[in-house]
Amino acid sequence: MDKIKKLNFNLLEELLEDIEKPGRYINNETGTKSKSPGSPAGQSDMVFMALVFPDIYDVGMSNTGLQILYHIINEHPDFSVERVFSPWVDFEKRLRSKKVKLFSLENRIFLDCFDIVGFTVQHELLYTNILNALDLGGININSKKRSEDSPLVCAGGPAVVNPGPLSGFMDFFVIGDGEEIVISILMKVKEYKKNNKGKSWVLKEISRLDGVYVPEFYKFYYYSDGRVKKIEPGKMVKKAVVRDINKYGIVKDPVIPNIKTVHDRFTVEIMRGCGRGCRFCQAGIIYRPVRKRKVESLIKDSVRGIKNTGYDEISFLSLSSSDYGKIEQLIEGVINPLKSRRLSISMPSLRLNSFNLKLLEIIQSGRKTGLTFAPEAGSQRMRDIINKNIKEDEMLDCIKMAFGKGWERVKLYFMIGLPFENKQDIVQIVGLIGKIIQAAKGEMDRKKLSRLKINISINAFCPKPFTPFQWVGLGNPGMLYDKFNYILSNVPKRYVNIRWADPYMSMVECALSTGSQLIGDVIENSWRNGAKFDNWSDFFNFDIWKESFKKKGLDINFFTTRGFSVDEVLPWDFIDIGVRKKTLLREYEKSKKFI
Amino acid sequence: MKNQKSLYDNRIRFKFFKKGEFRYLSHLDISRIIIRALNRAGFKLEYSQGYNPRPLINFSNPTPLGIESMAEYADVIIGGSVGEDELKKRINRELNQNVQITEVKKILIKAGKLMNEIGLNFYIFSLDIGESGSESVEEFCKVIDNNLIKGYHSYSAIFDYEIVPERKGYNIILLKLSGYAKIFKEKNNQIFKFNDFYSFLKERLKEYKIKIRNAKKEEMFVIQGDNLRTPMEVI
Q1: What is the mean predicted confidence (pLDDT) over A9-22?
Q2: Angle, CA B187 vertex, CA B182 and CA B189 arms, to 5°
Q3: Count of A-B CB contacts under 8 Å
């Protein structure tokens, strides 16, 4: 871009009048690293990238992936990246009414002035926010309608491993780990900018890299009913993988938000990938192989990070922390040198049993905030089908022990609408909750019992690409309602709180996750009719989506409850995620043994 | 039990400002920012007892979101002996230029919580009368004069204001306002804390097409008898 246009502070002040949480839009955090355009560091051939998280600041700043990419790109002398988040509805309204484009935080550069705009997409229900951000930023949402001057637009992250639905809006996609590939891509973008090469040149160049998918270079053929007939060329796009994760240390000096965010703490990714093999779980497949960080460097870097940031909470992230192996060593190693700081520790994915309950006691330092279990299903039969390796006895033993030690709150995650589900599976969810209450009555006196809280979270199973259950259809929303209502009316109300996700929201999520390019028009139409923040139940409006499907001549059931037949070409078959379709199918067949 | 004496020795009061972008941060945000800066600067904070230990630090009353403040105060207990200047230097290095400590002083007497001690806040506003002309200001002042209980001196309800033309801007005047406001008669003569008063005043001014510009908290005072003293003067 020849000229970088920025929003000046006086105008921002005017825009922020009476805006909710203005701290979201003001930058000036400790730890920002972008280079200013025009400054000696920001020389003229520097590539300026906008990293867009299509949700509000409070959510986006809690994302570790964003911090990793931000750090890696800004460390490079030739590249500068700035953060952009979705404005909350009040600020969007203000921007639109004052005709001000969406801008980045660091230097308040308007979105359409960047060389490249990259979205990190964590959830399919944020697709409409992506279109909204492009539009607010003065960029045409359709890649084919964008001129040579307009920035390159790309997307990466777990919610675009099936790029089909967004392919009409993106110049390219990044599949897999971002650390290495983002630099390789930006090198080519630098050459493109410096030598005034065309967009088609740069897209051709980067399409040679593992992990880059350029929609323009692939052609889809469909049957008249909407199934995919053929994808050309046959060459697959291979996922980018960082083989040696220890080559990249954790981010020790992240951007520290000024306002309170969803997770206001120092985060440490201890390992990537998960070897558990739950058959519904997409993360378990797409983040493979399992890579652990060395405990010695984790300890050193975590202590450094806590000193650098001043945080008093640290979170050890992974998909299954219990499988890391050296958790105790890690925790001790971090706590000891920081004794005076009263550090609190969280470990979101710790699989609890009687053995590591002691560990949890150390972590929660006597606070006993609550125990979380994810049995996902009520019956052993169903847990075998989905390959969730939790035994009821083990879990109940742990819960009993916890109640005896003074815990008063338990949280449980369940899914309904799982493949091959029958009435008994649902009945046994209620049964399991009953057993937990019995356990509590056995361990707690009356006074304590009155404080017992069992929080139950129930989600509809949503089939995801690259999982053994990718062929399974989504449960019929009406039947999901019935199942949920059965649970609701049969659990004892006294101690139990139940939360559940709208099955129609799951329906849209399913269509967006497993859809093909045909879904693109539906997304655009829904967005034009006001769909945004679809992951927020206050904003989600199924009618908009239903109408959009109808308008585009598509049947939402075809994309959701139908499922896929095993010999069908799947819309994401051209992506090589690292696990073969054959392997996934074998796992699917295995699950049927338990029916 | 900790030796009370040693605790008193390490009590420190500091004054800081928040301006520019930082005036868009809430009181709680600023508190977190200051605590993290103290941690980064390597100071050993004292913590409260109990399951949820919190650093022993308390702040003066909140300034509303969006208003600059030249006078925010905090009392903190810090382990070890650190000189006042060194403390200021080390914390400021960890803070954004929009929030900086201007004064540090050891607390040598028994002092209560800042929130309870402060009896009076002093604010300055610029009023932008824009196109509406100076008559509307006069009208507004007359309404205030008639309806406002002015100069009412009790411990918790003191209100005073002064409107002076600002030198530079022709259509900008300066309103000086101090204390809690005991306000208009139709409002049941209730006492507003500043936060409520600010939004009340803003609404009121809209009727006269006057906008508040550059509201700023200038200072806070502790009331001792008939005297006003800054929080730094009383320790």
Answers
A1: 93
A2: 40
A3: 65
Q: Tokens representing B222?
A: 């502790």
CATH of domain B118-229: 3.30.70
Measure in Å the smallest separation between the Cα of B36 and chain A Cα atoms: 4
The ranges assigned to domains in chain A are 9-238, 241-351, 366-504
CATH architecture of the domain with range A241-351: 2-Layer Sandwich (3.30)
Q: What's the mean per-residue pLDDT of chain A?
A: 94
ipTM exceeds 0.85, yes or no: yes
**B118-229 shares the fold of B4-111:** yes
pLDDT tens column, B30-49: 999 999 999 999 999 988 88
Which CATH number describes the domain made up of B4-111?
A: 3.30.70.580
The chain A residue lying nearest B46, using CA atoms, is A340
A contacts of B40 (beta carbons < 8 Å): 307-310
Single-letter code of the amino acid located at A193:
K
Q: Does 3.30.750.200 match the CATH number of domain A366-504?
A: yes
A9-238 folds as Rossmann fold (3.40.50)
For residue B142, with 0-12 CB atoms within 10 Å meaning exposed, 13-18 middle and 19 or more buried, which class applies? Answer: exposed
CB contacts, 8 Å: A308 with chain B: 40
Q: Give A28's contacts in chain B (Cβ within 8 Å).
A: 20-22, 96, 98
pTM recorded for the entire structure = 0.92
Per DSSP (E only), the strands in chain B are 11-18, 57-59, 68-77, 99-106, 118-128, 160-165, 172-178, 181-182, 191-192, 211-224, 227-229
Chain A interface disruption, residue of B32, B36, B212, most A CBs within 10 A: B32
- For A23, which of B24, B35, B98 is closest by C-beta distance? B24
